[in-house]
Amino acid sequence: PATGPWQESSVYRSGINLNEIYVLLTMINNCIISVCYNVIVSVFIFQGAKKPFNEVIRANIGDAQAMGQKPITFFRQVMALCSYPELLEDDKFPDDAKQRARRILKACGGSSIGAYSASQGIECIRQDVSRYIEKRDGFASNPDNIYLSTGASDAIVTILKLLVAGEGSNRTGVLISIPQYPLYSATLADLGAVQVNYYLNEDSCWSLDIPELKRAVTEARQHCNPRVLCIINPGNPTGQVQSKECIKNVIRFAKEERLFLMADEVYQDNVYRDNEFHSFKKVLFEMGSEFSSTVELASFHSTSKCYMGECGFRGGYVEVINLDPGVKAQLTKLVSVRLCAPVPGQALLDLVVNPPQPDEPSHATFMKERTTVLANLAEKAKLTEEIFNTVPGIKCNPVQGAMYTFPQIKLPQKAINKAKEAGQEPDMYYCMRLLEEEGICLVPGSGFGQRKGTFHFRMTILPPTEKLKIVLKKISDFHVRFTKEFSE
């Protein structure tokens, strides 16, 4: 109101614009809503009540080592040496681990990973990242286009900050896939950007269809300025791997619509069966200079997923392609605000992009450990799909990559009505019942977005194989029981 007791408040007297405060609070609220998918709590206060399970199995998050995956020996040896250089005199460590540690320490201020690094990242590590990209893709990579980051998430947020601008109908629109990883929706809400949804095709193994992208852009232009297209490949939460032809079509679309491409490729080693990972950069350059010299691209990778599973070290990078020099200068300024990415994370990233070579003593053990982790994940991906598809009312697409499955579940109308009475989304109600009755923590599909009238859950395939079999059996039995309860 224009007048009233509130005018005596310190906020009013200080001249702060209450409308701006309202807008800020709205943005904060939207951000909270966007990240609430992980609100399911996996720790109960039992208060003497006996539960029909002995442990809560957290199948809701892609935290490999929390689920029992063992660290890669070579990585931890080098990190131990970097953290406590006195161990360099210990004969228990192989020579190649010591050589890597010495090289990394030499590049650090004061020969210590406790010192700040350059804001863009340690120079020799950025060079190693470039060589890794060149070997992977067969095309040149410039270390000056590499920015080391606090996991891939930090780099994704930074690039979005760089790209979001405008007001009203000129506000930046960012295309994100539905289902999507909530980092994107939360960041867009925080930045006040416009979230533009495009739906993956569930009936075609979560493929990305160009007509759907065109629909999303056309509709968005009525109320914002679409400038960015985000792709997650391999997919989270859907586990698909996009074909090379699909990626080519996306690049053509981005060029036609003048969209900045953001390629989230943190699961690039997590590819199963006969599928193959193709980086957006590789495909872009294979398409010739008409595209490789004009389409703007930022691609991301991380130490947190794949066979490494080193989430806690928070190592990652972004490579930018065809960024205007003036814009790139602003990016460098933007990353300098946070001083630098964690140096231990940078060191670990260096080991990921420059692992033991065939002529080094640690190579055989490294390859054995790497191969075992990926083979186990491939086995569990197949097992998950096969078991879920035997359950009436559960439809599970092949898990082609990443480390999740996103099955569709058919819920009786009575269950949907019951959830609405409780003020919950139907799949949230389903997941909470599963948690309470079986001690299994999943994430409801509504936390990621889904087509209206469909319901899903996301589950990680990370538990050890024998425990995963138990999890799948419990979910299957629960679904049959839940369906019967609300169908009578």
From TrEMBL:
Q: Where is this chain primarily localised? A: cytoplasm
What is its subcellular localisation? Cytoplasm
Q: Which GO terms describe its molecular function?
A: L-alanine:2-oxoglutarate aminotransferase activity; pyridoxal phosphate binding
Q: Catalytic activity, per the record?
A: L-alanine + 2-oxoglutarate = pyruvate + L-glutamate
User: Which pathway does UniProt place it in?
Assistant: Amino-acid degradation; L-alanine degradation via transaminase pathway; pyruvate from L-alanine: step 1/1
Question: What residue intervals traverse the membrane?
Answer: 21-46
Q: What is its EC number?
A: 2.6.1.2
Protein's UniProt name: Alanine aminotransferase 1
The source organism is: Takifugu rubripes
